[in-house]
Amino acid sequence: MADRKPLIAGNWKMNLNHLEAIALVQKLAFSLTDKDYDKVDVAVLPPFTDLRSVQTLVAGDKLRILYGAQDLSAHDSGAYTGEISGAMLAKLGCTFTLVGHSERRQYHHEDDALCNAKLKAAFRHGLTPILCVGEGLPIRQEGRHVEYTLEQLDGALSGIPAEQAKSIVVAYEPVWAIGTGEVATPKDAQEVCGAIRSRLAESYGDEVAQVVRILYGGSVKSGNIAGIMAEPDIDGALVGGASLDAGEFVKICRFGE
Ligand code: PEP
User: Fold this and answer.
1) How far apart are CA 127 and CA 96, in angstroms?
2) What is the pLDDT of residues 77-103, one digit of tens each?
3) Is 191 a catalytic residue?
4) Of 35, 118, 131, 149, which residue has the fewest beta carbons closer than 10 angstroms?
5) Distance from Cα 176 to the centre of ligand 1, integer Å
6) What positions constitute the catalytic site (predicted)?
7) At what angle do helices 186-204 and 145-157 cross, to 10 degrees?
8) Domain ranges of the chain
9) pLDDT > 80? residue 2
């Protein structure tokens, strides 16, 4: 691996109220040490309603845990009931925001054009987007997973300049492996993550491709993270279910050790 610092990000999805969020971050803070943070960036992605609590805790205790949101609006302000803007997330001290998680694509019909607008919104407010891409089972069975995932990547990155593209994080999350217990083999994950890096090199040049962090996501646990992290183009993991258990998440941050 080039000298990309691994990132382990916990997507809490629609779980944990703000008190439970505080308890989980406190447990993580208690277990993770400077040695861990020197080796890996650790982030949590709580529901919007927990962000203020996490901010208070992290800033107040000067914790090294990073945090971010699970989504953002493509708009900056105005009559968009129920939406949360990048400006609001930045004000809450967020570092990251997910864009295009498969559950947003599936339940909220988010397409590549909307992901592109959301990426641009994230950049306007200094947030680092974690762009989620990945194929469903039928596409995998047809053997079109690489082509399909690269189309999502190209669509989302349309018009994004190299200066911004180099700070993006890409998460390859095959939909059939999310929340199913069905983990892609390290080789399967590497095949697509390697193709993503090659496509970034074609689109933006090697310099950008070598600094972009590419994560794998899909039923990551302490028992399978080591194999995934051994692959050359995988720079960390986006962790759903297992990020709700502090002990398990800390083990994942230590790559299963
Ligand atoms: C996710 O929500 O991004 C995810 C990868 O979930 P899980 O780890 O539960 O499969």
Assistant:
1) 5
2) 999 999 999 999 999 999 999 999 999
3) no
4) 35
5) 10
6) 101 (electrophile), 173 (proton acceptor)
7) 40
8) 7-253
9) no
Q: Is 101 known to be catalytic?
A: yes
Was 194 annotated as part of a binding site?
Answer: no
**HEC-encoded secondary structure of 165-209:** HCCCEEEECCHHHCCCCCCCCHHHHHHHHHHHHHHHHHHHCHHHH
pLDDT digits (tens, 9 = 90+) for 134-179: 999 999 999 999 999 999 999 999 999 999 999 999 999 999 999 8
Q: What whole-number distance in Å separates Cα of residue 244 and Cα of residue 230? A: 24
Ligand 1: centre distance to CA 167 (Å): 22
Per the structure block, which two tokens stand in for 231?
């692959």
Residue of 174, 171, 190 whose CA lies nearest to 233: 190
Work out which ligand 1 atom sits closest to the CA atom of 178. Answer: 10
> How much is the pLDDT for 208?
98
Which class is domain 7-253? alpha beta
**CB of residue 220 inside a 6 A radius of ligand 1:** yes
- What percent of the chain has pLDDT above 70? 99
Complex-level ipTM: 0.97
103, 173, 182, 231: which one is catalytic?
Answer: 173
